[in-house]
Design a protein that fits this description.
There is one protein chain. About 60% of the residues lie in helices and about 5% in strands. The chain is built from 24 helices and eleven strands. The strands form three sheets. Strands 6, 7, 8, 9 and 10 form a five-stranded antiparallel β-sheet that branches. The longest helix is centred in the last third of the chain and has 35 residues. The chain is elongated.
Length: about 750
C-alpha cells in the first residue's frame, strides 16, 4: 500500500499539469450536468416491510387516480374576535377563496369546509382541504403563488388565514453560519501552518471535491429521486473530511521537507505514509455510510451512498491533487519549523532547554503526563463521558411535523389553529384501510371496524367508511385526542392494529393503519430494530479493517469501545438541547420535542467513520515508532509529538464545518450538524487525546499483540511505510532512508 501510494504521489507531483487538468475537467463536467439537469422532484419516502407502507400501496392499487402522493394544503380560517365562521360575511369570504383555489391547473380537488363538516364546534375555526395532482416539490411556482394570494385576499377581508400541509414545502437553507464554519477552518489552517499557501491547499481541494460531489448529486437528483437534504449531508461530510485528509498529507509533506528531502521525494513519502492513513480512514467512513442500507429505508440508503461517494472523491483528491498542487507551490510551502512569514517564528526561535534541545511541544507534554497518570486520566474521561450520556436515557424518538416548525412559519401557525379549534389529534389523523376482498360481507366488515375503533380509548372522532368503486376496500379516518408525536397516539395505533386481528378472524377483512402519523411510528420502530444489526455490521467490518491496519487485537477493540462512549455522550447532548431545551435559544431551536428517529443510527454510522480518522492517523504514528524500536510508552509520546497538533487542528476544523450547519432552516439538518459537531469534540479531545494514550500506556506491549497464525494470515498493507526503504533507494540516497521513520 505505502509503496504504491508513494509512486502515485511522485507521479502526481511530476505530472501535475495532467492531474490538475483531470480534476478541473471533472468539476466542469459535473457543474454542466448539474446546471442542465431538470429540477428534482420530491424524493420518494417509502418504508418497505411496514404496515403503513403496505396500506399506502393498497390505496394506490384500489383507489386509482386518487393521487395518493400528491401535495396537500390545509387553508385554515379563524374568525375575528366576537364573530363566527358561520356568519354570512365570513362564509362568503371562505366560499370566494375556495372558488379561486379550484381554478388552479394542478389542483385535483378542494373541499368546502361548510359541506365537509370542517368547522369547529365553537364556530371560530374552519379549514379547506386542497389536493394537488403532483408532489410538493413538483408544484409550479405559479400554483404556490395562487395559494398564497387566495389566503392573502381572505386576510384582507378580516380573517386570520394560515396554510398547513406540504404544498408550500421549501428547499432547506443552511444560512450564513455555513460560511462562518469554512472561515473558522481557514483560520485554523493558517495558524497550524503559518502560511497562506499551505493553508489554502486543503481548502481548495476540499471545495473542488465537494463541488464535484454535490454537482453530481444535483445532476442525478431527478433520475434517482434524491432529496435536497442528500446534497446538504454530502456537502457537510465532504467538506469536513476533505479538509482533514488534505491537512494530514500537507502536514506530513512539511515534516518530510524538514528532514532534508527533495520536494518530489517528500511528496511521495507524504502520500505513502499519511496517505495510507487517509485511505483506511476514508474506508471506515465509506463502510459506515454505505452500511445505512441495512435499515432498508430507500431515502436513508440514498443519503448514505451519496455522502460515501463524496468521501471517496475527497480521498482521491487528497492522494493526487494535493501532491500536484504541492508541485505548483514549490518553495512557497516551507518545511515544518521553518520561519513563518505570518508569525515570524521558526524552529530556531522556539524555546530551548538548558542543554540546547528544543522544549517539548504541547502534544509531547500532554502525552508524557497521560502515560505517567494513565489510570486517573482514564477514569476521569470515562466518568465525564458517562455524565454527558445521562440525558440519552430519556431519549424520545419521532419524526418532525408542522408542530416542530418555527412559530414564525405559516405551517406552524396553521398547526396551532387546528389544535385550538379541533384538538391536538386533528393534526395527525390516522387512516384505517379495510381490505374486505376476502370477506363474504364487505359492508358488514366496514361497519364492524368502525364500531370497534369508536370503542377504543383516545379516539375523538371516526368518519364513516368510504368504499372504493369495487366495494371491496374502504378508508376510515380516525382522529386521536393527543398530538401526533405523543406516546398516547402511538398506543392508539397499536390498539387499532391489535383489534384488527380479531376483526379478521370474524369477518375475513384485513385492517391496516397508515397516514403520516402511522408512517412516522413505523419508521421509528424500523430504525430501532435495525440499530443493533447495523452496529454489529459496521463496527465489525471496521474492526476487521483496523486489525489489518494496526496488526493488533486490543487497539481496534479499544477504538470501538471509545467510539461507543463518544456517541452515547453526543446523543445525551442532543437530547439535552433538542428535547429538554437546554441552550435551545443559543442553537436556534424554537420548538423542543422528540429527537429525529434516524438520529441514533445515523450518528452511529457517521461518527464511527469520522472517529476512526483520528484513530488511524494518531495511532499509526505510534505504531510506526513502536515497530522501529521505541518502547511502548515512548511510542505514545512520539505519536503525539508528530500528530497531536494536526489532529487537534483537524478536529477543530471538522467541528467548525459541522457547526456551520446549525443555522439551517431544516430541523433535521440542524440536529445532524449539532450532533456531529459535539460528537467530534467528545471523540477527538476526550477519547482519542486522553483515553487512547491512557489505555495504550496501561497495556504496554500487550496493546500490539497479535496471534502468530493471524499475523501470517493477514495481508501486509504497510501503513507505516516500511516498504519505502527499498523504494527510497531507487529514488534517493541512503541517508534519506535511515530518516524515514523519524518524520
Amino acid at each position: 500500500m505505502a509503496t504504491f501510494l508513494y509512486k502515485l504521489g511522485r507521479l502526481a507531483f511530476r505530472r501535475r499539469h495532467f492531474v490538475a487538468l483531470i480534476w478541473v475537467a471533472l468539476l466542469t463536467l459535473a457543474g454542466v450536468g448539474a446546471a442542465s439537469a431538470p429540477p428534482a422532484g420530491n424524493s420518494s419516502f417509502s418504508i418497505p416491510g411496514t404496515e403503513a407502507q403496505k396500506a399506502f400501496d393498497l390505496l394506490e392499487q384500489r383507489f386509482p387516480g386518487a393521487s395518493a402522493d400528491g401535495a396537500t394544503a390545509r387553508v385554515v380560517f379563524k374568525a375575528p374576535s366576537g364573530e363566527k365562521m358561520t356568519d354570512a360575511g365570513n362564509k362568503a369570504t371562505v366560499q370566494k377563496t375556495v372558488d379561486e383555489l379550484s381554478d388552479g391547473s394542478e389542483v385535483a380537488s378542494v373541499a368546502d369546509p361548510y359541506q365537509g363538516n370542517a368547522v369547529s364546534k365553537d364556530g371560530s375555526v374552519a379549514y379547506a382541504s386542497v389536493k394537488y395532482d403532483v408532489s410538493g416539490m413538483e408544484l409550479e411556482e405559479s400554483t404556490k403563488d395562487a395559494l398564497e394570494d387566495a389566503a392573502q385576499q381572505a386576510r384582507d377581508a378580516g380573517l386570520t388565514v394560515e396554510i398547513g400541509g406540504d404544498a408550500l414545502q421549501a428547499v432547506p437553507e443552511t444560512g450564513a453560519t455555513e460560511v462562518i464554519g469554512i472561515a473558522v477552518a481557514a483560520v485554523v489552517l493558517v495558524i497550524t501552518f503559518g502560511s497562506l499557501v499551505s493553508a489554502g491547499l486543503p481548502l481548495l481541494t476540499a471545495l473542488i471535491g465537494v463541488g464535484i460531489g454535490v454537482s453530481s448529486i444535483t445532476a442525478l437528483a431527478g433520475a434517482l429521486e434524491l432529496g435536497s437534504t442528500t446534497s446538504i449531508l454530502a456537502m457537510m461530510i465532504g467538506l469536513a473530511v476533505g479538509i482533514d485528509y488534505a491537512l494530514f498529507i500537507v502536514s506530513r509533506y512539511r515534516a518530510e521537507l524538514a528532514e532534508g528531502r527533495e520536494r518530489e521525494e517528500a511528496a511521495g513519502r507524504a502520500v505513502g505514509t499519511a496517505g495510507s492513513a487517509v485511505v483506511f480512514a476514508g474506508l471506515t467512513v465509506v463502510i459506515a455510510l454505505v452500511g445505512l442500507a441495512v435499515v432498508n429505508i430507500p431515502m436513508l440508503t440514498k443519503m448514505g451512498v451519496a455522502a460515501a461517494g463524496t468521501v471517496a472523491i475527497a480521498v482521491l483528491i487528497a492522494l493526487t491533487m494535493i501532491p500536484a498542487l504541492l508541485g505548483y507551490a514549490g518553495r512557497r510551502v516551507k518545511p515544518a519549523g521553518a520561519k513563518s512569514k505570518l508569525f515570524g517564528r521558526s524552529r530556531k526561535s522556539e524555546p530551548k532547554e538548558p542543554d540546547g534541545r528544543p522544549k517539548p511541544n504541547m502534544g509531547t507534554r500532554w502525552a508524557s503526563f497521560v502515560v505517567r497518570r494513565p489510570l486517573a486520566v482514564l477514569l476521569l474521561g470515562v466518568i465525564g463521558l458517562g455524565a454527558a450520556a445521562v440525558p440519552a436515557t430519556s431519549l424520545e424518538l419521532g419524526l418532525p411535523d408542522d408542530g416542530s416548525q418555527p412559530t414564525s412559519t405559516t405551517q406552524r401557525r396553521a398547526y396551532d389553529l387546528l389544535s385550538e379549534g379541533f384538538g391536538p389529534g386533528f393534526n395527525g389523523p390516522l387512516m384505517v384501510v379495510v381490505d374486505a376482498k376476502g370477506s363474504d360481507a364487505p359492508k358488514g366488515a366496514f361497519t364492524d371496524v368502525e364500531k370497534q375503533i369508536k370503542d377504543l380509548d383516545g379516539v375523538v372522532a371516526v368518519t364513516p367508511p368510504a368504499p372504493n368503486k369495487g366495494g371491496d376496500t374502504a378508508t376510515i379516518t380516525v382522529v386521536p385526542d393527543s398530538k401526533p408525536s405523543s406516546v398516547q397516539t402511538e398506543d392508539l395505533v397499536h390498539a387499532i392494529r391489535d383489534a384488527g386481528g380479531d376483526i379478521e378472524a370474524r369477518t375475513g377483512a384485513q385492517t391496516l393503519v397508515t397516514g403520516s402519523t402511522a408512517m412516522n411510528i413505523d419508521v421509528s420502530q424500523k430504525l430501532n430494530d435495525a440499530l443493533v444489526p447495523y452496529l454489529v455490521l459496521v463496527v465489525g467490518l471496521a474492526f476487521l479493517l483496523l486489525i489489518v491496519v494496526f496488526r493488533s487485537i486490543l487497539v481496534p477493540l479499544k477504538a470501538a469501545l471509545g467510539f461507543l462512549l463518544s456517541v452515547m455522550a453526543a446523543l445525551g447532548a442532543v437530547v439535552a438541547v433538542f428535547q429538554w431545551g437546554w441552550l435551545s435559544g443559543l442553537m436556534g431551536v424554537e420548538e423542543t420535542g422528540p429527537v429525529m428517529s434516524m438520529m441514533p443510527i445515523f450518528m452511529v454510522g457517521v461518527v464511527f467513520g469520522l472517529a476512526m480518522d483520528y484513530e488511524v492517523f494518531l495511532v499509526t504514528r505510534m505504531r510506526e515508532a513502536f515497530v522501529h524500536g521505541e518502547k511502548p510508552h515512548q511510542a505514545v509520546v512520539t505519536g503525539f509529538r508528530h500528530g497531536a497538533r494536526v489532529v487537534t487542528a483537524a478536529a477543530v476544523i471538522m467541528m467548525a464545518v459541522f457547526a456551520g450547519f446549525i443555522g439551517s432552516s431544516e430541523s433535521m439538518v440542524k440536529m445532524i450538524g449539532f450532533g456531529l459537531a459535539i460528537a467530534v469534540f467528545f471523540d477527538a479531545f476526550v477519547v482519542r487525546m486522553a483515553l487512547v494514550p491512557a489505555v495504550l500506556a496501561l497495556l504496554g506491549k500487550r496493546a500490539w499483540w497479535l496471534p502468530k497464525w493471524l499475523d501470517r494470515a493477514l495481508p501486509n498493507v504497510d501503513v507505516e511505510g516500511e516498504g519505502l526503504r527499498t523504494a527510497g533507494e531507487r529514488g534517493s540516497g541512503p541517508d534519506e532512508d535511515r530518516e524515514l521513520v523519524r518524520a
